[in-house]
Write a structure and sequence with these properties.
This protein is mainly α. It contains 12 helices and no strands. The radius of gyration is 17 Å and the shape is globular.
């Protein structure tokens, strides 16, 4: 691995850690970067999942103020995320690599649609919240389970899915829900990463570079991410996502 190669992966880790904390689509930065450097899709996905775990921890620490008073909620949706993450990781390892290469372009396309329509989704779901403030309905746990399966298998825009589901089912401040999202997505990556460590081939050099970058990015996202222009961020992520689809196809 050349110094330029390593620097690019580290920078992608910073960007992914920041975006995951603020929006939830950092994999659309790191995954295409690894594909561009010639890594096989499944190897890239496995190494990327492990590398992004520390960034989720960093982001959760940055959101500790918003997490106060949400311990029970975090536990409930966390259980769904853990079970879903393990299921998705096992599916990734059991299904043939060709299935991953066939399915992922559709996943990325779905992720891009969610990113582009995020503002409209927030407006829509804001008018259809079902639960009383502070509550955690079963629908939120089931949503975390389904999103966890997706996240364990691939994970691009998992955070956006979670935030949309939480906003639809839980009546609370969006920033508080975003904090729960950061923890839930991090749990999915954590348990999927543990499965991958014992049952898959991991490029530890790549995972380490992404991890180092994502730690810095997670802290930056929690501290400064709300100041970023949503429009500019969407443009970057959409361009990268389309590049990934072209690369996979």
């Amino acid at each position: 691995m050349s110094p330029l190669h390593a620097a690019a992966i580290f920078a992608a880790g910073i960007a992914a850690g920041t975006i995951n904390t603020v929006v939830g689509s950092g994999t659309l930065i790191t995954f295409p970067t690894l594909l561009a450097f010639g890594y096989a899709p499944v190897l890239a996905n496995v190494s990327n999942t492990i590398g992004l775990v520390p960034g989720s921890v960093s982001g959760a620490v940055g959101y500790r103020r918003e997490l106060r008073g949400q311990g029970r909620r975090v536990i409930m949706v966390g259980i769904g995320s853990l079970v879903g993450g393990i299921t998705g990781a096992v599916l990734l390892l059991q299904l043939p690599a060709s299935a991953f290469e066939d399915i992922v372009p559709a996943f990325i396309a779905l992720a891009l649609v969610l990113i582009v329509t995020q503002r409209q989704l927030v407006r829509l779901i804001g008018r259809h919240r079902r639960a009383a403030a502070g509550g955690t309905p079963p629908a939120a746990v089931i949503g975390a389970l389904g999103s966890g399966i997706y996240g364990g298998y691939f994970g691009a825009a998992q955070g956006i899915m979670l935030l949309a589901l939480f906003s639809l089912t839980i009546d609370d401040d969006l920033q508080r829900l975003n904090a729960v999202k950061v923890v839930s997505a991090g749990l999915v990556n954590l348990v999927a990463g543990i499965v991958f460590v014992f049952a898959a081939h991991v490029n530890w050099g790549v995972a380490g570079l992404i991890a180092a970058g994502s730690i810095l990015g997670g802290a930056l996202g929690a501290r400064y991410g709300r100041r970023l222009s949503p429009g500019a961020l969407k443009v970057v992520v959409v361009i990268v996502g389309i590049s990934a689809i072209v690369r996979l196809l």
